[in-house]
Design goal:
196 residues, alpha/beta, 4-stranded parallel beta sheet, 7 strands, 19% strand
Length: 196
């Protein structure tokens, strides 16, 4: 595909170029290549076309975010590094309490780390596609929406004033990430920039 005709799904500009072409080498879930593009205007990395009809295949029930992981030394080191990053980012929020949405959050393990890191975390919400992950997430005190972020309703209690959002995957899982949550207060997380 000629990227000169491709609009960025976040800022809607046409200054995009191919960033990478990749396969699913971890789970071998699908055979197709995925083309990632980079927007030079806003820095977003996005996938096109978005494989919405393949999400259950790409993210199988044994996907790392959907299962509970034992606390081995690698997990403990990652958690320590995550806490350091989150402390730095959350220190920029002046709110007395912080409500967080985790898109693609699975069982809520990152939200668990956030809660251990910052006592101002008040409400945590996950939007993800796995039914089994919802059980663990809700047992750990997180609200859970089963579905895509486009289907998620921000008019429900506590979600209209979220202070932070975590997008755990590049915008590949989002059909139209330029709408809704990206335009609100802040974005916190991987592949996303903080915004005021």
């Amino acid at each position: 595909m000629n990227s000169s005709n491709l609009y960025c799904p976040v800022c809607h500009q046409k200054n995009t170029s191919i960033w990478n072409v990749a396969k699913d080498y971890e789970y071998h879930s699908v055979k197709e290549d995925f083309t990632y593009y980079h927007c030079t205007d806003c820095g977003t990395i996005f996938i096109h076309p978005v494989p919405l009809n393949q999400l259950k295949e790409i993210y199988p029930s044994n996907y790392y975010s959907f299962v509970t992981v034992s606390k081995n030394i690698v997990v403990k080191i990652k958690e320590w590094l995550d806490k350091r990053l989150f402390k730095k980012i959350l220190s920029q929020l002046n709110s007395a309490k912080i409500d967080v949405l985790d898109v693609g959050g699975g069982t809520g393990w990152i939200l668990d780390v956030l809660k251990k890191t910052e006592n101002r975390i008040d409400f945590t919400q996950i939007a993800d596609i796995d039914e089994k992950a919802s059980i663990v997430a809700e047992q750990n005190g997180h609200a859970y929406f089963k579905g895509t972020i486009e289907e998620f309703n921000t008019d429900t209690p506590n979600t209209d004033s979220l202070d932070a959002r975590i997008f755990e995957e590049p915008t590949g899982g989002l059909h139209s990430p330029g709408t809704g949550l990206f335009s609100q207060k802040r974005v916190l997380g991987f592949y996303c920039n903080q915004q005021d």
